[in-house]
Amino acid sequence: MKFNTLDLHGCRHADVKIEVENYLYLNQEDCPILIICGNSQKMISLVEEVLMEIKSTFEVGSGTNYGTIMVRSV
Predict the structure, then answer these.
(1) Cα(33)–Cα(73) distance, rounded to whole angstroms?
(2) SS3 for 25?
(3) pLDDT over 70 for what percent of the chain?
(4) What's the mean pLDDT in 2-14?
(5) What is the CATH number of domain 4-73?
(6) pLDDT (tens digit, 9 = 90+) per residue, 49-72?
(7) Residue 8, exposed/middle/buried by CB under 10 A (0-12, 13-18, 19+)?
(8) Whether the predicted pLDDT of 2 surpasses 90
(9) Phi, psi for 62 (deg, rounded to 5)
(10) Which residues contact 66 (CB under 8 A, 6 or more apart)?
(11) CB–CB of 31/37 below 8 Å?
């Protein structure tokens, strides 16, 4: 299955909040949405903060899916 995907590679930490919020609000009908954070724990934490702030349902990837977050609802 192919998911609607937001790839944050190349996104600066300072821009994460606006990028994630904008993408999710514009694509909320297309859930689930995959967010690719990469191997940066800081980036994963920033995305988690945004998702909790907007009260999204999400799952953080682990193992072979480390560096990804699956947003189930916005």
Answers:
(1) 8
(2) helix
(3) 99
(4) 94
(5) 3.30.1370.110
(6) 999 999 999 999 999 999 999 999
(7) buried
(8) no
(9) -140, 170
(10) 39
(11) no
- Contact predicate 20/33, CB 8 Å: no
C-alpha 58, offset from chain centre: 8
18-43: b or e for each residue (b if 16 or more CB lie within 10 Å)? ebbeebbeeeeeebebbbebeeeeeb
Beta bridge partners of 56: none
Q: What long-range pairs does 25-31 form, CB within 8 A, spacing at least 24?
A: 25/74, 28/74, 30/4, 31/4, 31/71, 31/72, 31/73, 31/74
Q: Which two tokens stand for residue 57?
A: 């349902």
